[in-house]
Automatic annotation (TrEMBL):
Xref: InterPro entries: Aldolase_TIM (IPR013785), DNA_rSAM_put (IPR023874), Elp3/MiaA/NifB-like_rSAM (IPR006638), Endo/Exo/Phosphatase_dom_1 (IPR051675), rSAM (IPR007197), rSAM_sf (IPR058240), RuvA_2-like (IPR010994)
Protein name per Swiss-Prot or TrEMBL: Biotin synthase related domain containing protein
SMART domains: Elp3 (SM00729)
Example GO molecular function: iron-sulfur cluster binding
Cofactor(s) this protein requires: [4Fe-4S] cluster
Pfam families: Radical_SAM
Superkingdom as given in the UniProt entry: Bacteria
Transmembrane segments: none
CDD domains: Radical_SAM
Residue span, Radical SAM core domain: 53-296
Keywords assigned by UniProt, alphabetized: Iron, Iron-sulfur, Metal-binding, S-adenosyl-L-methionine
Amino acid sequence: MATRTTLEKLQILADAAKYDASCASSGTAKKNSLGGKGIGSTEGMGICHAYAPDGRCISLLKILLTNHCVFDCHYCVNRKSSNVERARFTPQEVADLTIAFYKRNYIEGLFLSSGIVKSSNHTMEQLVETARILREEHDFRGYIHLKTIPEADPELVHQAGLYADRVSINVELPTDSGLTRLAPDKNARQIEGAMGRVKSDIVELKDARKRFKHAPRFAPAGQSTQMIVGADAATDSDIVGKASGLYKSFGLRRVYYSAFSPIPDASAVLPLKRPPLIREHRLYQSDWLMRFYGFKPGEIVQAAGADGNLPLDIDPKLAWALKFRETFPVDVNRAAKEQLLRVPGLGTTAVKRILIARRHRTLRLDDVAKLTQSIAKVRPFIVTCDWRPTFLTDRADLRSMLAPKAEQLELFAA
């Protein structure tokens, strides 16, 4: 096989990494190299690849260590039976690329994953070695996210957490049957066992940091996972239930949803078409409702249709409100925060503003309009001192009134 240049490897392995969505850096601790010590930081602005909790852009070099793989997962473009160009970096090459890109202000961190080459342990050793070179030899203080391998020795995964800001283990598919059918080399219980050990390590070392000043950090930005949407017959209800269980059992920072994308030389067991991208968006919205709006998984499922999937034309919060109209309208001057968070069109920021404003005056409809982005969506579900929706909330055509209007795209729009 001909020797590839670094640029050729980068083109192949960066493109191969695009199918992994779970690379956001929310939750990372702020670190810098002030005082002349170390290289890199997780602060400042750069190429927009991921976001920290306060809105800062974190630019990441997102690549695979190698796209060679001994596994044969049907949905993966890098599976062993796939006819794709192969390439492989050494840990030193990835470390050198990361430092070179950082010094040119291209990136502020690294997201590193890999196909399984030789064995799970060998691959995990290579991932850990890359992070070790960056941290110990270059004193790199930027963000590092390592995609760990559940089949690898637990000690290797533990070492990864000592070097990385975040670690992630993909559950891949929402149902055990789907995983068995499409990823025969993977085992759901093994994946969950690895996630459980990472959770225990995070909790244990976080507690140690409280008692011992110099105790090591372990994945301070937590762990995340990813599920592929639309590769199997799993419904949105299945996906929401799985995500809820993962949050509860393993304390995940994020569950990412990646719409299945048809790949070159695809397996015959896969769908011929990708699911609508809006489906992925609706799942993220439902995830937000569970994490920040107080919705329970069962309530999200209630918003789904008879086929178990969320409606695509309206968001899940509005779908739930239309199914349970008896809970509306709510009085913005009297309702509890939990009730206001269920009003379609009111986000967490708008609710916070309403709670502050009503301490000082009785709110009118115009006041609410100034505190939210779309008063038209809110009006049917609220009461103010000068507004009551009367029969508007119960109108049979309310859904069509509130659903986003379809727009014809313009070829030469400015």
